[in-house]
Amino acid sequence: MRFPSHENKDSGLRFHYVAAGERGKPLMLLLHGFPEFWYSWRHQLREFKSEYRVVALDLRGYGETDAPSHKENYKLDCLITDIKDILESLGYNKCVLIGHDWGGMIAWLVAICYPEMVTKLIVVNFPHPSVFTEYILRHPSQLIKSGYYFFFQMPWFPEFMFTVNDFKVLKSLFTSQATGIGRKGCRLTAEDIEAYLYVFSQPGALTGPINHYRSIFSCLPLQHHEVIMPTLLLWGERDAFMEVEMAEITRIYVKNHFRLTILSEASHWLQQDQPDIVNKLIWTFLKEETTRKRE
């Protein structure tokens, strides 16, 4: 694997990513969630490099990617443009786009705004953004599960809470019975946890990621909704943050072949929790004919 970086020509920000697979192969671009970084795609980097140029990005503000200091620099339109510019800087005009959690939100929006750039869309544990905004207003249970969106609007205190007791909150997200990977999953090793702690214990490392949430309310609801490329939505039913009902509703916004697979024993951290199954499902979807009717 290679660990290069690219400077975004419009924003001037330097983006860090990890790449596997030969240059010139079709591009597979991976967008992580919160609180994660490129490492959450380690299983997929190894799996898909045989047929793809696989690039796992550190999103704006995360890991070794530059982190602007003002929350206005994290509006969704900036994040969408980042992906467009990174695609071009890598020498491609289209890709298979895969996103998990917050990276899934960005992936949906890139697919909506720049459909010519996305040959196939794969999202893990995040519904279509319009489904999310409509559902959360009608279902108090989901509003409660998304309470951290509102907590993150506070200055400095959310960052402080993550650091208390040697980053206990961060560790428990991945390991606790309530929110973490279950007994039947591929649990994070001590080395995996250490990788996360190393990244997020750097000075100021939490502010950029949380600033993504501090800008979300200025960007929703969406003006455009339809997704026109073949789409795979993978969902861990034990997701502590997203209700599974949103997954099925997402179908109405995809005007092409749509496949939904719900894994009953899997958590929110699906591509780490069940990497072998996830990889197999992605391979199946990638090899399907794009002319198939919606299921």
Sketch the major β-sheet: 8 strands, mixed
Nearest-angstrom radius of gyration? 18 Å
Number of DSSP strand runs: 8
Shape descriptor:
globular
Per-chain topology:
Blueprint: E1 5-7, E2 14-20, E3 27-31, H1 42-48, E4 53-57, H2 76-89, E5 95-100, H3 102-113, E6 118-124, H4 129-138, H5 140-145, H6 147-151, H7 157-175, H8 190-200, H9 207-214, E7 231-236, H10 245-249, E8 258-263, H11 270-273, H12 275-287
Parallel strand pairs: 3-4, 3-5, 5-6, 6-7, 7-8
Antiparallel strand pairs: 1-2, 2-4
How is this structure best described in words?
39% of the residues lie in helices and 15% in strands. The chain is α/β, with parallel strands linked by helices and 295 residues long. An eight-stranded mixed beta sheet has the order 1-2-4-3-5-6-7-8, with helices on both faces. Helix 10 (245-249) links the parallel strand 7 and strand 8. Helix 1 packs across helix 12 and helix 2 crosses helix 3. 43% of the residues are buried.
